[in-house]
Amino acid sequence: MEQNISKLLLENEQLKDSLKKHKLILNLLSELNIAMSSATDVEELASFIIDKIIQIFKVKRASFMLVDEETGQLAIKAATGLDPIVKETTIKAGDPFSGWVVKEGNPLLVKDIDNEFPDLAKERLGRYNSKSFVILPIKIKDRTVGILNMTDKPEREIFNEDDLQVLGLFIYLISVHMESIKLYEKVKTMSALDALTELFNHRHFQERIGEEIYRAERYRHPLCVLLLDIDNFRRYNEINGYNAGDGVLKQVSTIIRDNTRQVDICSRFGPEEFAVILPDTNLKHAILVGDKLREKIASSVFVKRRDSALDMAKLTVSIGVVEHRTGLTKEELVHRMENALLEAKQKGKNRVSFYR
């Protein structure tokens, strides 16, 4: 009888502890949900998550990784306890642990790597204190977009199913906020694009040129800007109609996009004008870029009518190039760019001129 009472009392205390623990977790998740709502980009969210992971689980090593949509590789966005060199590396899709989680979309709980994966245990030898780790997928609409890695709990404690359950709730919150951030970024990008050409619009150019001037002066890097104008475009529109003109604008924007770098900022500057911001580019190389674009456009064929592939035209562009000088304002740089373009027009068009 006494033994049964003692057993019941023990179970009751364990139940109280369990309820207390779950209440603390729910309160913490509620706080996390509110805090994560303030994050406006993935990097900010990733850093916040890693900070909280350390506080909650007391782990010495953790990383938040995202899947590169083009290569399928994993890139670290935030981490703690890792060598700085490791933070800059990427993990291939075929990695036996992280790669498996991305491919299968399921969490991986390893209690003892020596027993569970003896062939792979040597790779971790000396790098980690614990033989136990956990990797969880971060999903948006059933698509794995990233993973969360954790290892090295205090006193070499083992990760267990309870940890996995709590982390599952944590991951759910991360996924919800990741989706919100992705949607926000998509809307933000769409608002910065020109609807016809899908290049950045004039407002975005004005924002970015200011940012790039600041960056160029702070780090003492070169910066150049190109301004392209389609020669005789108004006359072309009058003869062939605005639908044909829209087709030209789309084709020219594609040529510009295909013949510039990813870091270059290509924008529709005016009705038939395009601006290209060239970070880390000096005047000599900017002129080469401009001449390459001029030649590509001049050698292209533009279809006047969609219903006739035989009705085609040739068009050219004039280009002005300017290099930023320390102390120049955004307005002064743009004014010099426009003067360089005007010079190209006055000298006969279909040429590249630079501000002297």
Structural class: alpha+beta
Gyration radius from CA atoms, angstroms: 29 Å
Order of helices and strands: HHEEHEHEHHEEHHEHHEEHEEEHE
Overall outline: elongated
- Separation, N- and C-terminal Cα atoms: 101 Å
Low-confidence stretches: none
What count of helical segments does DSSP give?
A: 12
Give the strand order, joined by hyphens, for the main sheet.
3-2-1-6-5-4
| Secondary structure: number of strands | 13
- Report strand %: 15-25%
Largest sheet: 6 strands, antiparallel
Characterization of this structure:
The protein is α+β, with helices and mostly antiparallel strands and 356 residues long. The chain has helices spanning 2-36, 42-57, 84-88, 98-104, 113-116, 121-124, 161-191, 202-219, 233-240, 242-258, 283-298, 330-346, and strands at 61-67, 74-80, 90-91, 108-110, 133-140, 143-151, 223-230, 265-268, 273-279, 302-305, 308-313, 317-323, 352-354. Strands 3-2-1-6-5-4 form a 6-stranded antiparallel sheet, with helices on both faces. A 5-stranded mixed sheet has the order 8-9-7-12-13, with helices on both faces. Strand 8 (265-268) and strand 9 form a beta hairpin. The longest helix is centred in the N-terminal third of the chain and has 35 residues, at 2-36. The mean pLDDT is 84.
The gist of it:
With 356 residues, the chain is α+β, with helices and mostly antiparallel strands. It is built from 12 helices and 13 strands.
